[in-house]
């Protein structure tokens, strides 16, 4: 098979690494890719949002399967464009991808399908939103309705924080059009879990779960980020609870989307809060999470590529996956100043030594090479160091040993990824 992966982050590096190991693979491209991805795939200098050019490339190179990594091309309709060109794409249509592209749409799906979630209200003007905050009181969660690259959610402990988020999103337009409308929710309490399922429009095949670390600082402090690390499996989410979440959250959403004539194909990501009343949905995403993808795929024993094809072909009902009985951890290395203003251009050394640590993988995200071939930081989240082990403690030890071999004074990372499970 000839496969094109779309994206340039750590998630896409992990996808390319997994697909590259398939005996079914003939040729693998990634657009636009990054220096790490270039070791396992041919990088194509086409932006992930340049859908027209991606379609032309896929046609000219007789691509059999397109695998979009990030959400923006999916919401922009890459799957529709590929389908119109007769090319299989493992991702939802523009209509189905609204489950990530619009917080309001997600809530409407939940209400229609009876999916447990937080109480919510939608607002299209800031004054009404502020008045609601005063009536309801804090804590509250303020969400920009549209895509905001992980920056559109504020968990407000006080009314002042909620009002500040409303003013930032709706009046200052800090997120552009994504903040034209907001959804304000009750604040749920418990542990957060990311649950993934591969879907073919009718059937949902579990891909496992991970626990992400959204906060910038250790002990889950500081601002929200795109994710500073993840681990799998999480003791807080045993198989029985995963099955319950599949039955009460994932499969009802899949059925409701199909009922509306917009069947979901691809990876459905359910962000859950494990409350005293059971799992409740925080949000849906229309793709693998980052860095959860980097934590999950090293545990996969089966070939990923035929599973992606089966999702496109509607053949997951008789499909199964095998998983390695190991623990996995993914630790993000970010550039100083992330998430507000990451510093770019600093040199990174020692990745060969890090990757030589047993059971360790180093996935690139925001990296580039200069004219002399030196690797430099080119984004906020720059690397993800992943490790597997017989248990989480072993994986944790290997990952941080590998990080110790990396020479990058301008980078930083959390030293406590997996702390909840390790404490138990």
CATH topology group of the largest domain: D-amino Acid Aminotransferase, Chain A, domain 1
Structural class, by secondary structure, is alpha+beta
CATH architecture of the largest domain: 2-Layer Sandwich
Rg is 21 Å
Number of domains: 4
The whole-number mean of residue pLDDT values reads 96
**Which CATH class of the largest domain?**
Alpha Beta
Number of strands: 22
Please tell me what the overall shape is: globular
Percentage of residues in helical conformation? 25-40%
Major sheet, described briefly? 9 strands, antiparallel
Taking the alpha carbons of the first and last residues, their distance comes to 44 Å
How many helices? The count is: 14
What would CATH call the homologous superfamily of the largest domain? ATP-grasp fold, B domain
Short précis:
With 424 residues, this protein is an alpha+beta fold. The protein has 14 helices and 22 strands.
Report on the architecture of this protein:
It is a single chain. The protein is α+β, with helices and mostly antiparallel strands and 424 residues long. The chain has 4 domains: 2-95, Rossmann fold (3-Layer(aba) Sandwich); 125-180, ATP-grasp fold, A domain (Dna Ligase, domain 1); 191-318, D-amino Acid Aminotransferase, Chain A, domain 1 (2-Layer Sandwich); 327-423, Alpha-Beta Complex (Glycinamide Ribonucleotide Synthetase, Chain A, domain 4). It is 31% helix and 28% strand. It is built from 14 helices and 22 strands. It has helices spanning 10-20, 51-60, 71-76, 78-84, 98-101, 103-113, 126-136, 159-171, 239-259, 292-296, 304-313, 351-355, 392-404, 419-423; strands at 2-7, 27-32, 42-43, 65-68, 88-89, 120-123, 140-144, 153-156, 182-186, 191-200, 204-212, 215-217, 221-224, 229-232, 265-275, 278-285, 327-335, 360-364, 367-369, 375-377, 381-389, 411-412. The strands form 5 sheets. Strands 10, 11, 14, 15, 16, 17, 18, 21 and 22 form a 9-stranded antiparallel beta sheet that branches. Strand 15 and strand 16 (278-285) form a beta hairpin. The radius of gyration is 21 Å and the shape is globular. The mean pLDDT is 96.
